[in-house]
Every structure is written in structure tokens, then in C-alpha cells.
Amino acid sequence: MEFENIETITLLGAGSMGHGIAEVAALAGYEVRLRDIKTEFVENGYEQLVWSLDKLAEKDQISEEEADAAADRVTPLVDVKEAVDDTDVVIEAVPEKMEIKKDVYSEVETYAPDRTIFATNTSSLSITDLSEVTDRPEQFCGMHFFNPPVRMQLVEVITGSHTAESTLDAVEQLAEAFGKTPIRVHKDSPGFIVNRILVPLMNETCWMVSDDEATVAEIDSTTKFDMGLPMGAFELGDQVGNDVTYHVLQYLQEVLGDAYEPAPFLKETVDAERYGKKSGEGFYDYENGGVDIPTDAGSEDTKVRLAAVMANEVGHLVENDVSNPSDIDEAVMLGAGFPDGPAKLADNIGLDRLVETLESLGEEDGHARFEVSEALREAAQQGGFYGESDTDETRSYSTIDLSYPGDMVGHIELSREARMNTVNSEMLDELGDALAEFENDDEVRGVLITGKGDRAFSAGADVSSMASSASPLDGIELSRKGQSTFGAFEESPLPIVAAIDGFALGGGFELAMCCDYRLASERSELGLPEHNLGLLPGWGGTQRLQRLVGMSRAKEIIFTAERFDADTMYEYDVVNEVVENDQFEERAHELAAEMAGGPPVSRALTKQVMLKGAEDLDAGLELEAQAFGHLLGTDDLMEGITAFMGDSEPEFEGK
Ligand SMILES: C/C=C/C(=O)SCCNC(=O)CCNC(=O)[C@H](O)C(C)(C)COP(=O)(O)OP(=O)(O)OC[C@H]1O[C@@H](n2cnc3c(N)ncnc32)[C@H](O)[C@@H]1OP(=O)(O)O
Questions:
Q1: Is 208 in the same domain as 176?
Q2: How many angstroms does the Cα of residue 487 sit away from the middle of ligand 1?
Q3: Where is the signal peptide (predicted)?
Q4: Residues taking part in catalysis
Q5: Residue 577: in which H helix or E strand, if any?
Q6: How far is the CA of 420 from the centre of ligand 1 (A)?
Q7: Is 497 helix (H, G, I), strand (E, B) or coil?
Q8: In which element (H, E) is residue 143 found?
Q9: N or C: more exposed end of the chain, with fewer CB within 10 A?
Q10: E strands, 93-138, where?
Q11: Cβ neighbours of residue 452 under 8 Å, at least 6 residues apart?
Q12: Residue 559's domain is classified under what CATH number?
């Protein structure tokens, strides 16, 4: 089955994953059949799907017409023959029990056409074993979505022992057509990528409590506030379901050995039926207060130990040819919302330190989980999973992507999509370096900044680690760092376009304020919500906004902390231009290209003179005169005048 020919998709199982995937497929324009074993199950799934589409429309992420059209593309069914008759792809999301899945595949095999691809959404079972129940193991692979599918970007595409390359290609292209990011898992290995990192992490935290080495509060404070994970490790465990984590660990132990033995504290919790949120109690008691994580109880030792355990898993995945560090990082960021992937986190701490940590824990405790993987040792010798990258001539970036789309434009894409492209300290460093790289590149005459995905330009500073590092001196340093990085954009000789599609909030908006031109798609919302957090716009917003819109309007925007739509921000003179959503990309490039095509020297001087003169007219006028004089001696002036006289387009060289 070629991707281009896929039109109809059958979802087997209308539970939370099944109806969620059906919704994603329908939104992408496919005809979808949603099937479950009982009418009430399938009706319930369909109702939830419609509810979720309505929510997207309410939040203006899609129009009401798009929501209705997507709902109309889904046919709820109970009859399996009808569900798979003449379908192109079957995505199975029935309960995670080998026997149930095998029964389903035997039945589906009878009715599905020969061309149909089978993809299982299993999170833990063997793809190879499942594929062997069918007569088409080469047309069978894993397609593992994350919950909720409509929001989570990642799809792990897993190869079984018999899967054909063409099947994987088609399923990856299908995931892309769904608007998702597929990451190939090259081997059918338990836990694939994301769970293989997360489950040992959660188990280690339970071992630490079992051995009285840390408390739940200390560990969750470390993971949430010091490591910046979206939630505490125990909070995450409760969310996933402690019984689920326990069973996955038992499976990992059975297949991979005792390094994955479930910790006694986890077993006790499961034995006491404290399964987590779904049962009302887990590590936290949801009927009495729920999750309560102190911001300041974290410890560096805990952070290093947990990073070491995850780095060891990265090593196992690498040495077993399941994946590579950069795919692992991307998968964990997109699938689990980590601010950095485990390999990057490990490199930042230093692999030698992590290897020593594992070795010394192994000597004290002797447990198999501390045995250092060969790939981790090798990476440590090479200076990191990513090698000693910063000594290379070419800088590699992890929070932003740089590209050269042509027309002398350098493109910076803020690239922390799972976190709404929020700005952390590393992104500030990388933004500064990227700008310098473009400024030193003769081929770049203009810069375009966008945010990855269609949800946000940037939702501002990443606040997840702010509460723990709440020292006033750290705050001053962070504010100064953002001010100086963003200030470099304002002062850059290059013309810079901020193209905003989605949210531009807090620091994201402050970055856009430093650009020369702000383009926004219709669906965009801009604002400074810092007052909602008890902060103030600390990356130049208190100063630059009043210069843009006047004192009174600036106070309105800052004090109300509201989000303003693109049209309102156009009226307020914040945004230069608003475009329809589907014209956004083309217009953004067109504008940046237009800016890049102008005379470099006069534009750089104009920027400088306007900025310097903003506060002092006399100084500004004097600078203007000096700049004017300087321009009279440039080749570009000659080119401009010659082109004007000859009625042609000037080709400025910046000389
Ligand atoms: C000096 C500079 C200071 C500042 O910039 S302070 C920060 C100012 N910015 C904000 O206060 C914005 C906070 N974010 C929001 O209000 C909402 O988000 C949005 C309106 C942007 C989007 O809302 P929705 O569509 O409901 O998405 P979601 O589930 O809230 O966000 C998706 C994921 O993105 C994370 N996230 C969003 N903004 C931030 C942030 N500023 N810092 C850290 N994480 C953020 C969330 O937590 C979540 O993550 P998960 O999927 O893991 O739950």
C-alpha cells in the first residue's frame, strides 16, 4: 500500500486512544471507521471525539465547519467485517493484552483486503509476535501515539522483525499527514523509546524511597523544579497508573533482565491498590489535597542520579541499535514534554560524572540496574552523546533550528514545540549565537524568526524551573541575560521579521518587540501575562512596549495580563500586518526576502540611527547627518541611482 493511495482508515477500539487517533485522522481529511465490540462503547467513543472537536473549535484552533466536517468523516461501527472491508489502513488500539490483540488480528485478517496495512498502537507488546498472527507480517508495524493523540506530537513508528521498509515509509508519511512527528524505532525492543526512558526513571525514584534515600516530596521537587520536567516523577506515575508502570516493569524484567526489577515501594503501592489518579489514591491522595510539591526541596544528587539512570537507558538503546541519541531526545521531548532529552541532559551534566555515579551506586548496592552500558562508556570517552560539539567550527543548536530558505534570508525557528517554544536559558544562548552566525554570513541579509508548529511563536519564558531558582540575584541575572540577547536583535544591522502564528506571550512577545517587523496570522494572540504569575515583563517589555504603543496602552496590556487577538494588536500598532492563517508561511518568507533584498548599509545605519535617536532628537539628527554623509561614499548608492535611471531593479552589495 502506497501512502498516496491511503484514503480510508479503520480504528479498532474506541477507547481514549482509539477515538483520539480517529479524531486526528478525520481532521487530516481521511474517511475513518471507528469500531468497538459494543454499540455503547463505540457511541461513547464517538461522543468523546465530537466533544474534543468542539473544544478545538471553541479554542479557535479549528473552525466550527472543520469540526463538523471531521465528525462527519467518522463512521461508528460494531461489525468488524464492515469496519475493515475495503479499508487501506487498520490502526488497532484495543486493550494491552496479547490474547485480546491476537484474537482481533485473526478476525481482521479474514476480512481486510490484501493491500491493507496493519498498525498497532501497542505501547509495550512485541510487534513481531503480533505480526505473526497475521498472513501479512511485512505489512505490519507499530504506530504508537501518545495521550491525548490530538495534542501530543509524537508517533513512534516501530519496525517488527518482518516489517517491509515500504510499510514503514507509508506509515511515517501517514503520521506526517496527521500533522505528527514520526520517529522510527529501528528494533522491536520492549518499551520502544519513550517508555524505555520513563519507566526506569520512575522505578529509580521508587527504589530511592524504598531504600530511604529520598522522600516523594524531595524527588518530585527535584524532577519538577530542578530538572524542569512537566510534572514530578511520582505525579507522572500516578497519572500513568502505578499498576501499568508495574506491569511494564515486570515485562521488561522478563525480557531484559533484573535491571528492571520493580522497586518494593512500587509493588507495595500497587498491592495496596493505590493505582494513582484513576483510583483516587496513588503516591498522592487525590481525595485529600492531591499533588503538593514543594518548590525548594530538590537536591543535586537526586538530579544527577536520575540523569545517570536515563543516560544508561540511552546507552542501552544505542548499543542495541534501537535508536540514536538525537532521535531519543526528540522522542522524549515530544512524547513526555521534557525540556531537554535525556542524552542532552546527560551531556550537560557531564557523562564522566554520570558514569562515576552509576559505578559508585553499583559498588554500594550491587543491583543490576547500575551496570554501566557500553555505549554510555564510549560516549563518555568521546566527550558526550553528541561529541564535543562546541569545539567544532559549525555550531549545533538544540532549542532552535537554523535554515537558509533562499533569497538571502536566514531563518531561525524556535523549536521547543512540546513546550510551546518557550524560552529557556539555553535558547537565549543559542539565539545570541544564531544571530551572530547570520551577521557574519555574507549570504544572509535578513532574518526571519518563527515558532515551530502552529500553536505558538513562543509562550514566553519557560517558567517551570523559575520557582526553584527563586533567588533575587538569579532573577536579576536572568532578566539581564534576556534583555541583552533580545537587545542584540534590536541592534542588529540585519532587518528582522518576527512571524507570529499562534501565541506570542511574555518573553515571546518581548522577543518579537525587538524585531523590525511583526507579521501575525489571524489566529494569533499576543500578550504579557507576567502579572498573572506575580512577575513583570523582564526581558525589555516594560520599556519597549510603551515606546511601541504609548504609556497608557502599554499599561493596559501589562496590567490586564490579557491575550489580545491579532487584529486588536494591529489596531494598537504592535503588529504591522495580519494575514489569513493559510497564507502565513508564504507571506512570512516574502516579507523577509523583501527586507533582505534592500540596501544593507543604509538599512543598518537607519536601524542604528533610529534606535539611538529615539530618546534624544538632537543626537538622532546628528547621527542621521553622519550616516547620510557616509552613504554618499558607498557603491550601493551608485547602484541604486544607476538602477533608477536605467529603470531596473538594484542589486545591492552592501559596499
Ligand atoms: C521575562 C519573561 C517572563 C515570561 O515570559 S513569564 C511566562 C509568560 N507566559 C505565560 O504565562 C504563558 C503560560 N502559558 C499559557 O498560558 C498557556 O500554556 C497557553 C495559553 C500558551 C496555551 O494554553 P493551552 O492551549 O491550554 O496549552 P497548555 O496545556 O497550557 O500548554 C501546552 C504545554 O506547554 C507548557 N507551557 C506553556 N507555557 C509555558 C511556559 N511559559 N513555561 C513552561 N511551560 C509552558 C504547558 O505547561 C503544557 O505542558 P504539558 O503539555 O507538559 O502540560
A1: no
A2: 24
A3: none
A4: 510, 530
A5: strand 577-579
A6: 6
A7: strand
A8: strand 140-145
A9: C
A10: 117-120
A11: 401, 413, 414, 415, 416, 417, 421
A12: 3.90.226.10
Matching residue, cell 510551546: 420
Domain boundary among 324, 346, 381: 381
Which CATH number goes with the domain that contains 52? Answer: 3.40.50.720
Burial 194-229 (b: 16+ CB within 10 A, else e): bbbbbbbbbbbbbbbbbeeebebebbbbbbbbbbbb
CB distance 530 to 507 below 8 Å: no
Cell, residue 219:
524527588
End position of a domain, from candidates 596, 613, 632: 596
Please work out whether the CB of residue 219 comes within 6 Å of at least one atom of ligand 1.
no
- 64 within a domain of the structure (yes/no): yes
- Give the other-Cβ count within 10 Å of 68's Cβ: 15
Q: What CATH number did the domain enclosing 641 receive?
A: 1.10.12
Indicate the residue type of 607: K
Same domain, 412 and 367: no
DSSP string spanning 46-80?
Answer: HHHHHHHHHHHHHTTSS-HHHHHHHHHTEEEE--H
Q: What is the pTM of this model?
A: 0.71
Residues 220 and 117 placed together within one structural domain of the fold? no
CB 497 within 8 A of CB 440: no
Helices (H), 388-506: 425-439, 472-491
SS3 35: strand
Classified as helix, coil or strand, 38 is: coil
* Phi, psi angles (nearest 5°) of residue 404: -125, 85
The C-alpha atoms of residue 462 and residue 424 are separated, in whole angstroms, by: 5
**Residue 254's CB: how many other CB atoms inside 10 A?**
10
> What pLDDT does residue 183 have?
96
Give the domain extent around 157: 3-185
Q: Choose which residue among 147, 419, 477 to substitute to test ligand 1 binding: the one with the highest number of ligand atoms within 8 A of its C-beta.
A: 419
For CA atoms 548, 553, 555, 559, the dihedral sign is negative
8 Å CB contact between 159 and 137: no
Ligand 1 within 6 A of CB of 342: no
Ligand 1 and 236: CB distance under 6 A:
no
Closest CA to 458 of 425, 502, 421: 421
Q: Structurally, how many domains does the chain consist of?
A: 4
Which regions of 211-332 does DSSP assign to beta strands (E)? Answer: none
Residue nearest to atom 49 of ligand 1 (CA): 419
Is 653 among the domain residues? no
Alpha helices in 550-599 (DSSP H): 551-560, 566-571, 584-596
Averaged over successive runs of 10 residues, the pLDDT of the chain (655 residues) comes to: 94 96 98 97 97 93 94 97 97 92 95 97 92 97 95 95 97 96 95 96 98 96 89 95 93 94 98 95 95 90 97 97 94 90 94 97 95 97 80 72 94 93 94 94 95 95 74 86 95 96 98 98 97 94 96 97 97 97 96 92 89 84 85 84 84 82
The H or E element that residue 106 is part of is: helix 98-111
Task: Please give the sequence-ordered ranges of beta strands (E in DSSP) within 340-476, or none if there are none.
Answer: 400-406, 409-414, 446-451, 456-458
ipTM rounded to 2 decimals: 0.97
Nearest CA to 508 out of 427, 392, 623, 437 is that of: 427
Residue 76: all three cell numbers together: 461508528
Q: Which triple of cell numbers denotes residue 351?
A: 557523562
Q: How far apart are CA 249 and CA 362, in angstroms?
A: 20
Residues 6+ apart with CB under 8 A from 518: 497, 498, 500, 512, 574, 575, 576, 577
